[in-house]
User: Which sequence fits this backbone?
């Protein structure tokens, strides 16, 4: 389709509305993919720390006793949910929850409240140690099963199917 200036445009549907986009990538229109991609950070910025940037910072919560908010930079829901669920398994932890302030930034805030017998920092460190142990066990078990599966697969059908 051509508009009044003679340039070619394509019509697409986005969220149920017509979305006019210029075929020429040099002149993207609002709502086009080219403009949306400009706002997305580079992939390496999602996991590499900048100069002077810390991985974890702690800020004590002044409204509640024995509570802190930990900010994890360059991490996402994967670690946040694992830490939250592991912290909740501790009998000394009253509350553990996390939030991601903005979906475009790889950062989450983890709030931990304890019963006072241990600090939130100690609870978090213990949860991290427990997670490392659990993930090591998972890796060993997976490797063992993988090797067994490969041996059984090789003997049964000559290894043609693999898994």
Assistant:
């Amino acid at each position: 389709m051509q508009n009044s200036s003679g340039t070619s445009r394509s019509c697409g549907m986005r969220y149920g509305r017509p979305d006019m986009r210029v075929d020429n990538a040099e002149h993207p229109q609002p709502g086009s993919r080219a403009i949306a991609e400009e706002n997305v950070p580079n992939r390496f910025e999602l996991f590499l720390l900048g100069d002077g940037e810390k991985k974890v910072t702690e800020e004590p919560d002044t409204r509640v006793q024995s509570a802190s908010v930990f900010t994890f930079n360059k991490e996402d829901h994967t670690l946040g949910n694992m830490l939250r669920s592991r912290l909740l398994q501790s009998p000394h932890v009253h509350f553990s929850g996390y939030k991601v302030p903005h979906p475009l930034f790889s950062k989450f805030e983890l709030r931990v409240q304890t019963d006072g017998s241990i600090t939130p920092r100690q609870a978090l460190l213990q949860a991290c140690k427990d997670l490392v142990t659990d993930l090591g066990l998972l890796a060993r078990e997976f490797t063992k099963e993988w090797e067994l599966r490969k041996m059984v697969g090789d003997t049964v059908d000559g290894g043609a199917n693999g898994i």
